[in-house]
Amino acid sequence: MSANPKIRIFLTGVGGQGTLTATTLLAKTVLAQGLDVTSGEIHGMAQRGGVVESTVLIGCKSPKLGHGEADILVGFEPMETMRALPYLKKGGLIISSTEFMPPLSVAMGKEECPTIEDIKAAVAGCTDKVYFMASQAIGLEAGAVQAGNIAILGALCAAGELPFGPEALEEAIKVNLPAKIQAVNLKALELGVNALNT
């Protein structure tokens, strides 16, 4: 990997999942490696169940990310992973949860929820570099359902597409998260790395 890599990461989930917290932690991890990073929220809804989209752009001058430009798509909710596929460049990396947190439109019966098989088929049409994991279950195993996001970030850091590994995220957790939730998140990180390698 070059000394000044350009990597565009698109992250998506639903409100209440901690997508923006995970985005901020990832950006701080990048920054701690001495790399240029731009992070932003494209579309966020504070209310529970709204779509949340954000970016972490490493070594990029422009803060914008258009369709077909993301090197990596991180989906904290599988339906949102599928919805965000237009942003992924052909052959890019996807790391996604398999566990649904249906948005309001589905909960109210206005929209159908695709099956995980539908989502995997849609993803397979874009890339074969994909890892799915039951992030909420991993989070619960670590001690808190929200820690599932850290499991996904751990898998991302272990996937070999970033200029650093899981140790950098481990350090960022110790520096940036409150002491009382560090142990749970460090466990989730370890479980996420293990999930990638199974």
TrEMBL record:
Transmembrane segments: none annotated. Residues 15-193 form the Pyruvate/ketoisovalerate oxidoreductase catalytic domain. Signal peptide: none annotated. It comes from the Bacteria. Keywords: Oxidoreductase. InterPro entries: IorB_Oxidoreductase, Pyrv/ketoisovalerate_OxRed_cat, Pyrv_flavodox_OxRed_cen. This is Indolepyruvate ferredoxin oxidoreductase subunit beta. It comes from Pseudodesulfovibrio sediminis.
